Amino acid sequence: MTRDLTGDFQTQRQAADQMPYPTLTVRRDRLARLARMTKHHQLEIIRAIQTDFGQRSDVEIRMAEINAVLHAIRHTRLHLWHWMRPWSVSMPWRLTPARARIAPQPLGIVGVISPWNYPWSLALMPIVDAFAAGNVVMLKPSEHSPATSNLLQRLVAQYFTLEEFKVVEGGVEVARRFSELPFDHLVFTGSTAVGRQVAQAAAVNLTPVTLELGGKSPAIVAGDADFDKAATDIIFGKGMNGGQTCIAPDYVLVESRHISAVVKALSEAIQRQRPDDHAATHAINAAHQQRLDAMLQEAHDHGCRIIDHGPHAPALVIDPHRELQVMREEIFGRCLPVIGVSDMSAAIRYVNARPHPLALYAFTHDKGLQQQLLQTTRSGALVSNATLLHHAVPSLPFGGVGESGMGAYHGRHGFERFSHLRGIFYQAKRSASRMLYPPYRRWLIKLLGLG
Ligand code: NAD
Predict the structure, then answer these.
(1) Model-level pTM greater than 0.90?
(2) Cβ < 6 Å from ligand 1: which residues?
(3) Average pLDDT of the chain?
(4) pLDDT digits (tens, 9 = 90+) for 224-240
(5) Which active-site residues does the annotation give?
(6) What b-and-e string marks burial along 222-258, b requiring 16 or more CB atoms within 10 Å of the CB?
(7) Which architecture does CATH list for 217-395?
């Protein structure tokens, strides 16, 4: 396997060297093939994902896996000609009439390590941006979604040459070797703990990394919010994919005097959105299910009130102690702690006392509070009166900060992330700046304030 991996990497390296600047036509064609691969095999993709999860809503698969990729490709193919064009930047008067520009240049080979939770879209979304920027790509999908990973491997081999796009299947050992390859950029989507290891492996080669990590994303519900609407949005974000979404609201913060009203609204939203178990997504495997069951059991054993509407619906855990597992680690599943705080300043202090989240959700129309959140908290994204929807805006950078990740992609941000923004300087035929060369002229030194 190691020899294959290195051999395939060398093949891609030669290809990238032979075509250091793929034209717009080449890039648009690669993107079109990626779209065809996703569109023409929708049913196989849905079946593979459902095999991996045991049960997952096909509406959610179409929305978050298939359409997410197709929309990203459409946006990118439309704007790519514009993004690829070098742009002029201003010149200090001392150096005029020289000109300066920025020219985006492909990096070469981009490696992508992807997780199991959205096994199609999180594998391909970074590749859309990497292709747009003119790179070739190598992907290591998750071993925890083997049916989808295998389908990816087979379809990619059908639609792309090895020189353009290679899928490497395998477990942790293969992933480790993969992260040690001297990529020109490595994108990792997964847990913070593994992200640290990937960053260390990449540092040996000075490979730049984009780390799309996880963490606990809070939802703050202020007193002025419409509790029913807020609860509907929160349960949408938590219910999607059985809570196995990196930007799912992890826990809710609400003023203690409103906690009963918010819990009631959340409970009603669960019943409205999850009337039966058929639409619900299951935990990816028995180990994850056991982890979630253990979280709920521990909270129950410590006297927390739990409102549970069924094995695959969001389960509310009221005011759990901060030391319980449900508050110590990213939940990534159906548990939803609801925590009472004295006021909104206490909610902000609560958020700021913990690692910066990937998303911070705020349910309020109070402009003052929105401004306070903007200026006094840090998170990958700040979202008001909704959950998850910012992910679908291609012109917003998507990424974390601190423990939730580094670097962002999507749309133009991804194009620039996977390009080298090369500084270009054109000296004019006649240039006064040459007068700055030695021997230094006294009058000029005076004019420039240098002596
Ligand atoms: P994970 O970290 O266990 O695995 C992710 C990938 O890393 C897999 O392909 C795996 O094979 C590989 N891997 C495992 N060990 C490795 C090692 N030592 N070196 C290199 N690669 C290794 O994550 P997961 O369980 O698949 O996904 C869940 C996590 O991902 C959650 O924390 C979630 O929040 C996060 N996530 C983040 C985003 C985002 O965009 N920020 C999106 C989805 C998921």
Answers:
(1) yes
(2) 113-117, 122, 140, 142-144, 172, 175-176, 179, 189-191, 194, 197-198, 212-214, 246, 330, 332, 358, 400, 405
(3) 96
(4) 999 999 999 999 999 99
(5) 212, 246
(6) beebebbebbbbbbbbbbbbbbbbbbbbbbbbbbeeb
(7) 3-Layer(aba) Sandwich (3.40)
